[in-house]
Amino acid sequence: MAEIRIERVTKRFGATTAVRALTLEVRDREFVTLLGPSGCGKTTLLRLIAGFMSPDEGSIRVGTATLSTPGSVVPPEQRGMGMVFQNYAVWPHKTVYQNVAFGLEVRKVATSEIRARVARVLELVTLGGLEARYPAQRSGGQQQRVALARSLVVEPSILLLDEPLSNLDAKLRERMRWELKELQRRTGITFVYVTHDQSEAMALSDRIAVMHLGELMQIGAPREVYTHPANRTVADFMGLVNLIPARVVRADAVAVGGAHTLTLTLPPRVADGQPVQLAIRPENVRLVPIGRGAPAGGDGLPGKVSEVTFLGNLTDCYVTLDDGTRVRVQAEPGLALEIGQPVAVRFDADAASVFDV
Amino acid sequence: MRAEHVVLVVAAATLMILVVLPLASLIVGSVVDGGRPTLEHFREALRGRLYVQALWNSLVLGAWTAALSVVIGLPLAWAVSRTNVPGKRFLHFTAVISYLTPPFLTAIAFVNLFGPNAGLVNRFVRDVLSAPALTFNVFSMAGLVLVTVPHTFPFVYLLAASALESVDASMEESAQILGAGRWRTAAAVTLPLVAPAVLSGALVAFVNAIALFGSQAIVGLPGRVFTLPTRIYALFDYPPQYGLASALSLIFVAITVAALYLQRRYLARRSYVTVGGKGGRPQLVDLGRARFAVLAFGVAVFVIAVAAPYLTLLAVSVSKSWGLTFWQNLTLQHYRFVLLEYDVTRRAIVNSLMLAAGAATLAVVLGSLVGWVDLRTTAPGRKLLDYVSLIPLGLPGIVVAVALIQFWLALPIPIYGTLLIILLAYTARYVPLGVRSANAAFRQIDPSLEETARVTGAGWLRTFRSVTLPLARPGLFAGWLLVFVPALQELSASILLFSSGSITLAVAVYNLYETGALKPVAALAIVTMVIITAAIALATRLGRGGAGVSVAQ
Lengths: 357, 553
Ligand SMILES: Nc1ncnc2c1ncn2[C@@H]1O[C@H](COP(=O)(O)OP(=O)(O)OP(=O)(O)O)[C@@H](O)[C@H]1O
Ligand SMILES: [Mg+2]
Prior knowledge:
The structure holds two protein chains of two kinds. Chain A is an alpha+beta fold.
């Protein structure tokens, strides 16, 4: 069984704490992405899992075996994992075949079997026929596949990937995403995938673990993390978000600007009257033009359009509310808006979250 | 005529006189005898027992030196860049000092330790240990290798260290995660990746080793181990055999060029070590207790390459009689002799300082002209100019001297035996260093800075003086120092060109050695080292001041 249990792991480099008391469980055959801004400790965590580093505190277990504790670390070569590096790290002095065959040679697999398995895995990553080439002269995408094939051929139960797509151009990146996802589904390997690109994380993952400053902020399915971020940091990192001042009015409701009341789940330990922030993504804000036969006011918040950009598939605009708050709205492209036009905005309570100030 | 053409013509004419015409007269001299074409010189050089032996000895010397340079340089490089060995700075320092020590000083020091009769270590082994079988005669091929390797292993060390440092950690980690242990990873990944750099270092060691006249004359000649440089040197005894010397020189050049060609090919393959990406530096290997063994190896290298030569020379220079109890009778009389009584010393000091400063300046100026034409103009023939300026890389010092003699003796201009011909020799030898430094310095200056000046109305010369030159100055000064240091201790070319008026420091040391006055030689060697060190320190300080000013502007 290839489930990974990371328990209260801490890793320090001198004064900086790269990973702080982090607990995370990755299930067998799951695709989990470590997502977070540069320097948040993603690579460090991955290298801790691989055994390139020893934790200062905590433990890492796979199945029933304890692999890392501060005192003893099973070295990487005995973990039977696979790892794909950001720069691919294909060996320039070995051919594609030799690169891929290496792991099998180390395992003393018979030559005839090596040949068969290398051929099969090269077919899998669509590199069949390039066995005799030197990978250093191939394109980034092909080097990437060589690196993947090299890791997959030994049939690891866990594959660690550190920003494997970040050096590819946008189009190739898109295609490799699908291929990776497909590969993981077919092979049933547990994937731990590092990226700082939230759209990549959403496209690929069963669950996303959002990290910040060495700590785990939230772990959940992409939709959950996106629509119900656990805190401001996650909300911010997962995409555009409006943070609007609000006030608690009931145990399950907040009011914005006095008029607009939303019923939704609140964080624990908030009292009536306490100021909070309402987080809502621009696509979840409704716009109602005022004065074109539409009912004025209602339970929306009045304001004026202050900026409009037509983007084709949507209209991106800012509305300045009467109390001065600016709200970003992504409205249907059909809506004709002009600067200065009076509008009312309404928030979709199901898609909003409330954070402590 | 446009400015760039003037510069091109001046640079081309200078290179003609310095390099091309002397080399041409060397070639002509090797196939012409008494006005008639002949292959007799080459036949003699390739058939004569003496010359074949010298050629063979040179190859043996080069091969052993290159191999031992790898044996010493590679482990040191690996220890410093990849392990937790203690004293890394010390190990690095050992390599740098070994490299900077004039090779003829090491040779003289080892003569005092391992001379067959008077060598201190041999005496100790014979008289105290009573084990005459363990004595070591430095006047032999083995001795020659021993005194040469300290000067050449730093080439392997430096190239291997930089290659090891540029191998991305993920290259090795990929092998590890696939199940390869430390040694398997080293053998399958690290070693193949740094092999081109190591081989290239070994070839540079080879080329340098076979060109060192000083050590080959000092320990080779007494043991009758002749090599190409010492054979060529002997051909200038009266009556000089210019034709044969020229043929032998060209064979020497062919070997050097072949080795350098291979070296460039290996180095070109090295480029794949630095694959991009943001992989990290490799983790240091924890050697455990073995790290003290590795340090001990480094200390042994330090003792042989640095401590032994300097301490020996120092001890010899202050002892009344050189023997196992030398410290009981110390004296400063040898210093008094070389500094006050031996009038050659002062002349040699002044000459060497002038020649080194002059050659460094000329090489950098010429290098700047060539570099500028190459990088900033579209003048036809600029690439050719660049190639020609690199020819001297393939010419051992003594060959440059032979070529200059051939060329200038044929002209009615009597510069043979003057400081001028030595200056020409030094400039020719080191002009590639000047060109490379200038090239690197100019490359770092964005042409748009110069274009801006031109647009604001500054003429070409004005632009060069007030924009290009100040910006390039730190790089050019580094090049100047790069020429100045070896020129100050040059022996291989000077030995054929000097006269009593134009004697240089290294020649003075060598001449004194030939008279057998080992203690004054040691004193003079120490004085030479002090002067070289002081000159480098002074030049660096002045240069740093200059560089500071140019940055401030
Ligand atoms: N070997 C090391 N020595 C010292 N500090 C380190 C080392 N490795 C990482 N760090 C520090 O630990 C912190 C986390 O680094 P890490 O490489 O894990 O971040 P990351 O999330 O992978 O960032 P990126 O997206 O830039 O790759 C950073 O502050 C980094 O500077
Ligand atoms: Mg990283």
